Amino acid sequence: MNREFESRSSKGMRFIIFVCFLLLTGVEATERPNIILIMSDDMGYSDIGCYGGEIHTPNLDSLASNGIRFTQFYNAARCCPTRASLLTGLYPHQAGIGWMTNNENRNYAYDGELNSNCVTLAEVAKTAGYSTFMTGKWHVSRNSKAASPQHSWPLQRGFDRYYGILGGASNFFDPKGLCRDNRMINKLSDIEYSLEDYYFTDAISDEAVRFVRERDKEKPFFLYIAYTAAHWPMHAKPEDIATYKGRYDLGWETIRNERFARMKQLGVISRDAELSPLDTHPWESESRPDVQAGRMEVYAAMVDCMDQGIGRLVQTLRDEGIFENTLILYLQDNGGCAEEIGSKGPVRQKGKKETTRLGEPIMIGEAIIGGSENTYVSYGKSWANVSNTPFREYKHWVHEGGISTPLIVHYPDLVKHPNSIEAFPSHIIDVMPTLVELMCASYPKMFRDHHIHPMEGVSLVPIFSGESVEREHPLCWEHELNRAVRDGDWKLVSKGRLMDGPYRFWTNFKLGEWELYNIAEDRSELHDLALVHPERAEQMAKVWTTYAERVHVFPNPWKP
User: Fold this and answer.
1) Given 54, 224, 497, 507, which residue has the most CB atoms within 10 angstroms?
2) Tell me, what DSSP letter sits at residue 558?
3) Residue ranges per domain, the chain?
């Protein structure tokens, strides 16, 4: 146990010490929580209802109303770096995914898959006697084909059972790269889950329910659910889309302003928060308002379906009599996604005559709304600006819009103040120490004959029971030359530019100027104080450089 843990004397700490004592003395300790970690994909800070959104998320809202909502929790700005960091408790570069998963052998920090100097949450959980399950998107391995080496697949990184896709995105009605345990499958060949009306979000939820029902009931379990909702392509079931018919016809300014007002009312942003400028053209000048409104209807339907699945899982926990002793965490992998995937230009067939399994052409273009499996579009920058209300920037960047995520914590056995708001600046690196503490696990220095990097974060367990937490070191970020440091109320941030060539071979780039913000007063990052406090900016820039050297941001993969 570290010094911080030894100094705590809250009710929650006494509970955990008692449970660990039972384990060490050989007494059955059923009090250790089951743990469910839920991550959604490419969603913004304001999308779900309990953070201000108009999308129907009653099950997440219920977890929040009986748990804790963190308002300053951060991810790593992009799908696979966030997943690497979440799974390992390290910064992405330390785990081997400083960029993406297709950058093989550029250097240690950018090798494109989880390396051997980290352990996953599942590997640690197994050492503490937990069963370990996963459903959904893996995206921390270079190898995602049947003939690929499997050393970095889920079962080889600690999971007992797995169902999902190994890559980053796929058709929701017929996902490619689908995998069960160590077998590549498709929706037709999988005899264990075969439905005529297959939809991937439902499959992720249903398989999670199945794993819970079929678990060894003598052991606690760790379940990681990584939804692909609401990542492009925008695919949703017609009945879910119908729920939102006409909801977005008033346009992005109106929806954004409505969210902003609700967020203040809910307390997930401050009463004096400012709304960042609209980062798109006015709705009244939109040439295809029916298409744009339709895309947001599909996006909302995707989120709605995910929430329905979470509801089925919660009901299963109740039916099994384990709801009260199950910790549920919900968070997102990055901010809303501004990528215009298939959403611009003339209507045309995607790729070289790409079709569905039934031979229908897959269509893209500015007139394509999405929804059905024969389309492949994103919802685009304008709606991402709404998702990230009230913040600036998007997925990829490390301004608040790119890295801010809801975190909902629901754990009746330990949460002292239900429906509470928590503003402690925290990060996905904090999940590992939090779960290690709750599982009464031992985080290793060596694992399979490899040295393991120490955990980077702090345990959030004291917050669950109403205590405070202190962080010894500032939080830092780097992704695609975008840099940031968060130290107390202050944030230093910079937006880089990669100017030519495929990413992995970029040699022409420019680092952006540092911007300095007091986040307590200016969470939307609208008032740059770098020239007002140059000494603070310089000191924080040195903190970032020390971090970058320590976690192997340098040498960057785009340098010769």
Assistant:
1) 224
2) T
3) 3-341+378-472, 474-560
13-22, 107-116, 282-291: which has the minimum mean pLDDT?
Answer: 13-22
What is the per-residue pLDDT for 5? 36
The superfamily CATH assigns to domain 3-341+378-472 is: Alkaline Phosphatase, subunit A (3.40.720.10)
Cα dihedral 96, 97, 100, 104, rounded to 10, equals 0
In the block, tokens 């499959």 appear at 203
Query: Catalytic: which of 20, 50, 79, 337?
Result: 79
80 annotated active-site: no
Going by C-alpha positions, the residue among 51, 18, 32 that lies closest to residue 307 is 51
Q: Which residues does residue 39 pair with via DSSP β-bridges, in sequence order?
A: 226, 331
Q: Which burial class, exposed, middle or buried, applies to 120 when counting CB atoms under 10 A from its CB (0-12, 13-18, 19+)?
A: buried
Task: Give yes or no for residue 398 having a pLDDT over 70.
Answer: yes
Taking residues 283-298, report their average pLDDT: 98
Residue-wise pLDDT tens digits, 523-557: 999 999 999 999 999 999 999 999 999 999 987 76
Q: Beta strand pairing status for 404-410 and 326-332?
A: antiparallel
The span from the CA of 259 to the CA of 387, in Å, is 9
Q: Report the pLDDT value the prediction gives residue 105, as an integer from 0 to 100.
A: 56
Quick one: pLDDT at residue 15?
52
Catalytic residue among 56, 93, 139, 479: 139
Distance CA 101, CA 81 (A): 9
459 DSSP 8-state letter: -
What is the DSSP pairing of strand 68-74 with strand 420-422? parallel
Preceding omega of 233 cis (within 30 degrees of 0): yes
3-class secondary structure per residue, 181-199: CCEECCCCCCCCCCCCCCC
- What mean pLDDT is predicted for residues 74-84? 97
**CA atoms of 328 and 322, how far apart (whole Å):** 12
Tell me, yes or no, if 79 is annotated catalytic.
Answer: yes
Please indicate, yes or no, whether the overall pTM of this predicted structure exceeds 0.90.
yes
Strand pairing class (131-137; 221-226):
parallel
Q: For the chain, give the mean pLDDT.
A: 92
**Residues of the chain with pLDDT > 90: what percent?**
84
Helices first, then strands: H and E counts in the chain = 15, 21
Question: Mean pLDDT, to the nearest integer, of 196-204?
Answer: 96
> Which residue shows structure tokens 């029916």?
290
Judged on CB neighbours under 10 Å (0-12, 13-18, 19+), 111 is: buried
Fold of 474-560: Arylsulfatase, C-terminal domain (3.30.1120)
Tokens, residue 341: 């995937």
Q: H-type helices in 183-244, by residue range?
A: 200-213, 238-242
The Cα–Cα gap between 260 and 349 comes to 38
Report the percent of the chain where pLDDT is more than 70: 91
Structure tokens at 17: 């010490």
